Amino acid sequence: MKKTLLTISISLVLLLFFSCKEDTKKEEKETTVKSSVSENYNISILIDLSDRISLKKNPNSTMEIYQRDLGYIKSVSEAFTQHLKSKRMRQIDDKMQLFFNPEPENSEINSISKELRIAVDKDNASKKLLNSINETYSSKTAAIYESAIKDDKYIGSDIWNFFDSKIQDQCMDKGYRNIVVILTDGYIFYDGTQIKDANLSTYLTPQLIKQNGLNNNDWQKKIDKENFGFIKINADLSNLEVLVLGINPNKNNPFEEKVIKAYWTKWLSEMQIKHFEIKNADLPSNMDKIIKDFILEKE
Fold first, then answer.
1. What is the mean pLDDT of the chain?
2. Handedness of CA 269, 249, 188, 47 (dihedral sign)
3. Which domain of life is it from (predicted)?
């Protein structure tokens, strides 16, 4: 009889223990979900409007570069609205904006880009606004690319300077998950920012890669030994996440893609950016999941 009572008591204690443990796990899971859903997003899209999008210089029979960009932007916009719709209206305090560097001389492009600075909070959040974001981004960004291509005045891409002088002020806010999506072929060049410091530079071109002898199988050893790369920016961007899309290496050098990614990886790591991905140009349908997984991974 005593053994039976003891067995029952032990069983009840174990049952209670595991029940409490399961409840704790459930509470932790619910807390995690609530925490991620209420997280505020600050998404910035940085577009490289250099001659990489030129239909004359870089035609693409499968899908033009600018059309791929528009597809990537559509995926970013959809991820942003999906995030907004996962939150209660009173929790919403999220932003999405679009940048260029340098700014195009075309005043129409700059005017349109201002319309793409969207801030949604509990005071202006509505189903109508949330449902309009994707269409707004789709039509307005298409107008930007069409205008730039028609204008046919490509002044280059100064991504290095954007990180050096603007990104902290314009793309990073406390209390937000700060994400920058960069649309670029991986090359950086702007006449006004050409700085070299030994084997480090503020720019990267196919000519520079060839000039530096990084077009053979020993490219990695050479980069490590002779310290090739972008000039380091003295900033702690650990509260920033970066997604680079559209890497499109020169086909004349089979090692070009790896060299470009090595430059970017080293540079982003030096700025203490822990979460970043660098992806090649591909069809938007193939990139959609990659983009949304990156942006919504904590949801």
1. 90
2. negative
3. Bacteria
